[in-house]
Every structure is written in C-alpha cells, then in structure tokens.
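Researcher: Next entry in the queue.
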Amino acid sequence: MMRTGALPPQQMLTLQAIDRVVGAAGDAMIAFDRDLRYVHFSAGMERLTGMTAAEVLGRKIYELFPFLREDCERLHAAVLRGETHSAEGRSYDIPETGRRGTYDAYYSPLFDGDTVVAGVGVVRDTTELKRVRQELQETENRFRNMADVAPVLLWMAGTDSLCTFFNQTWLDFTGRTLEEEWGVGWVEGVHFEDLQRCMDVYQAAFGRRERFEMEYRIRRSDGQWRWVLDRGTPRYTPDGTFAGFIGSCADITEHKRLEAELRQAVQARDEFLSIAAHELRTPLTPIQLGVQYLLRSEPRDPKVLTQKLHKLDEHVHRQAQLVEKLLDVSRLAAGGLQLELSEHDLDEIVRAMLQQFADEARRAECELLLTSVPARGRWDRGRLEQIASNLIANAIKYGKGAPVEVTVEPLGDARVRLAVRDHGIGIAVEDQPRVFERFARAVSVRHFPGFGLGLWITRTLVEAMNGTVVVESRPGEGALFCVELPCSPSLAGVISG
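Model: Structure for this entry, 497 residues:
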C-alpha cells in the first residue's frame, strides 16, 4: 500500500501512477518536499528498510538515514533545482532494523506547472544482484587462477566459434598476447600443412556441437613446431543453452618422437628377423645336402669323403659364427660382456686373423696385404680378434676381386691404429653415419648377405676399450676403416650396448 504525505492533489495522483508502474517492476519509490522531508514512502521502501511509512513521512531524510546526508546536500538539492541524477552502487545500513545492502537510485523533479514541488526517487535494491555478481566474479577468478597454473594449454570459445579465453600457459607457450590470440588469431600459430584439416574438424564439431580430438603442430615461442593433442567439448548454461566450447591442448611432441622411434624399431626388428632367418637357413641347406649325399652314396674314396667333410665343416663353422654373432648382440644389449685385459701384440693378433681369412680371401680373389710393426698394449684379446675379424670380413665381402690393405702402427700418444682398406663398392656419404648402428645396412641383403651387426659390434667393443672407429669412403672407390685404441685402456668393465 502506498504511503503519501501532504502534496497538491494532482501531484498525489501523479505519484500514485508512478508508484504502480515502479512497484510492478519490483522497485521502490520515495518522494521528498523542498525541506527534504519524506512525503511519499512506498510499500517497496517499507520492505527494503524495515520501516513503515508512518515512521518516515514528514521526517527529514538525513535524520532518518544519516548515510544519505551527502546525497541530501548534493543530489537531492540538485533535483529540487530541476535536475535529474542517479546514484548507483550505494550502500545502506539501518541499525534500527538491521537492514543493510546496496541500491541504485534514480532521482527526478516533480513539477507543478513550472515550479518544482518535490523530488521523486526510484530505488532498486541491488543487494542480491551484487552478491550474485561477486560470487560469479569469485568463481571466474578461481577458474582463471586454476587455468593459469594448469600444465596444459586451455581455451574457450563462444557460440560463434570465436575464441574468447586462453590461459597463461597457452600465452607463455606461444609467446603472444591475449589480444593477439582472440577470435581466430590463434590460427596464425598453426602449421600451414595442418591448418585446413584443423579448421575442418573444429568447425564441424561446432556445427554438430560434439566433442572433438585432433593433432596438429603449433609454433612455440622459441620458433619450434610442437605437436599438440587438442580436445574440445561443448559447454552449456544451467538451463541447457549452448554456450560454446572449452578445450585443452597437451604437448605430445615427445610422444610422437617415441612413437616414430618405436615404429622404426619394430620395422628394424622385423627386417632383422627376416634377414636372420635367411642367413641361418643358408648354411643349413648345403649341410643337409652333404649329409644326405654321404648317407646315400657312402663314398669309399677317402679323398672324396675328406672333401665332403671339409665342406660340411665350413658350413657348420659359418653357422656357428652366425649364432655367436647373435649371442654377442644379446650379451651386449644386456650388458653381459666383460673385458679381460692382458698384455698383447696387435700385430700378432692381426696376422693370425689374416691367416684365418686366407681361404675366404682366395675364393673372393682378394689379395691380403699387411703393413705392420709390433704394437703392444693391454687389451682384451678376444674382443680385439672380433674387431679385426669384423673389419677384414667386411672388406673381403664388399671389396671382392680387389686387394685388401691392412695396417697396424703405433701412434705417438700411447695409442695404436688398425686400418683396413678395401677397393670395393664404397659407401655413400649420407649412409656413413649410420653404418655403425645396429641392423644398419647401406646395401641390399639380396646382393650382400649379413645381419648388419658386424660394424655395430665393432664400434661397441672399440668404445668399451676407450677407442674410436671411423670410416672414410666414396661410392665406387672403396672404404677405409680406422680404429684407434689406447695402449692401456683406463677401465675394464662391463660392455653395454
């Protein structure tokens, strides 16, 4: 019910009309005369203040509500001069009723002809609105604080698919400002090869309002391209209205690298198993045929029998070498090979190896040439024999029909060098860095059989004795492998592959 003090009848009717409109909107209304006394106090004001119109009408504003004294001196006085003013976000505190909160007020003069007879104020209680806004602000601040310390790149987009938020992690990652990334600015950092696919997935997901997941490259602040996994999901307001998307990006560059390495390792393993099966089966066939011949023909000529047995022995020896090489790989990978150092002459060891390869070199029409002087040191004899054997066998295999030159010489810094040169097919420059890797092959297994392990084993053994091995080569001009070893390796321990 409206509460109105003494005013001319026409103005009272005007106030009543205004009050009905204001009350319907949920607001309150007051009116004051030229002496700043309340002449109108609506039911809405009674609910707001906890005071009745009977307690208020006829009393001065600032006497009832001291917190309004400044407004009385400034705003209310200006309204009574015919001006219109507003006061927003003001606080009120009424100790008598225990009411407190915030309000907005809009003041206008009330005329009788050309004379201002009163001031009218429409008051809106904003206490609850302010509380809700504060809670929303606190919620948003908490979200931003959590988002900015999150280890992943976070983003949000509105219903138009334009991005409106990126967390600090994203901005630090890209080295760009929020203003630069807003809208579609972020796509400037997407790799051009991935951009179209990225946008197709993004726009399609927005159109269907479905979750999406995609991988693409994005430029980091240091200029590097990094692979990210971007997952986006639609978000909705409490009433179910679509509000846009929120998403996160995780740097998966290392994962992609490991994935590629794993694929390469699986491919290398499969190729190796295929080569190993072929290599192990090759000597078995003549062994089987030789045994069948002996069983079937029972040769009585001792010379024929001896020749056949020698052939079988060669094939068995080759089979044993292949198996031993595979065992070496297993031992090296498991760190199970031990160095046993003692005094040896590298010249003597190499001469013995060349003698063992004499028949094989003769069949390959390779003349073995040695230039050597005594070179003594503390080494593992068995591992030195493996190193020399692998290099000599490699030279005979790829230098068929041409001399193989082997050199052993002391160096001036308590080191020795073993060099093996062939004049065969040579190695392309781009293949040279990887010939010492496990299972690496620079040529087809169909033309040059083998596991692709000899040079890897050689490098591993040389490095275990604190030495180095390098290759110099050109296609069609042969290859030179040089091993340098200290005469007294500093450590004898487990060889790890």
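Model: The chain has a mean pLDDT of 82.
Researcher: Noted, moving on.
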